[in-house]
Design brief:
By secondary structure, the protein is an alpha/beta fold. The chain contains eight helices and seven strands, in the order βαβαβαβαβαββααα. Strands 3-2-1-4-5-7-6 form a seven-stranded parallel sheet.
Length: 237
């Protein structure tokens, strides 16, 4: 009897901090696609900015705390173990080298971030290295990508997706609600000493408060409401 192919979810991002929107993207994809494992991977240095607000230690710790209640999820330091900028193309190559073929990989991403896919390293070849699972974000329905990125429409599919060993990578669109929250909004609220309850998991909130992360006196504090910083909070690697 042939074993069912693995379905490995990869959720990457800066996670500065990880929040309910990130978790919603992962839980929606896990439920709809029946993912067997989800690796949540904080970037070392994201391609879209030169530094993060919290250290790699804090971002990985918060990620581990956030996924602790999800039995099939694992926080991974795969990108943090490599100096310099983190690129999804490099991370996918590492998964391939570990024996995961593209047909078993499902890269989870918000619809807003996927709009920028043409700017990613190794585009369009990267589309052949994993399934992209695009989940709606507030104001960005996944289904609209068929029109906004019409050149990729032939690769797009809606669930359910039957697993096959030699399945060509797809762009899987999932139109389901996810929390209207961003890392930028969390940092802004912390800078003004406002509550972030409900925006992050209770463990993450406790860690942020205990260590004074993102507060007005946080070391290296600078303006965070510029467009480049808002772009940095999108769900991609």
């Amino acid at each position: 009897m042939t074993a069912q192919p693995r379905r490995i979810g990869i959720l990457g991002g800066t996670f500065d901090p990880i929040h309910r929107g990130h978790l919603d993207v992962g839980t929606v994809a896990e439920r709809v696609l029946g993912l067997t494992r989800v690796f949540v991977i904080p970037a070392n240095v994201p391609p879209h900015r030169h530094q993060t607000f919290a250290s790699a230690f804090h971002r990985f710790t918060m990620t581990a705390m956030a996924v602790a209640d999800y039995p099939a999820w694992r926080a991974s330091d795969l990108e943090l173990r490599h100096e310099g900028t983190s690129y999804t193309a490099v991370t996918l190559k590492q998964f391939h080298e570990r024996g995961y073929p593209p047909s078993e990989l499902y890269f989870l991403i918000g619809a807003d971030a996927f709009m920028d896919i043409a700017t990613w390293r190794d585009y369009p070849k990267i589309l052949d290295r994993t399934h992209f699972v695009v989940v709606s974000r507030p104001g960005h329905p996944a289904g609209a990508l068929r029109y906004k990125l019409s050149g990729l429409a032939s690769r797009m599919a809606d669930p359910p997706i039957e697993p096959m060993e030699e399945m060509d990578p797809l762009i899987i669109l999932i139109d389901e609600p996810t929390a209207d929250v961003s890392s930028t909004a969390i940092r802004e609220r912390r800078a003004h000493n406002e509550s972030i309850t409900g925006m992050v998991s209770p463990r993450v909130e406790q860690h942020i408060l205990q260590h004074g992360l993102y507060g007005a006196a946080f070391p290296g504090r600078r303006r965070i409401d510029q467009p480049a910083q808002i772009e940095a909070d999108k769900l991609h690697g």
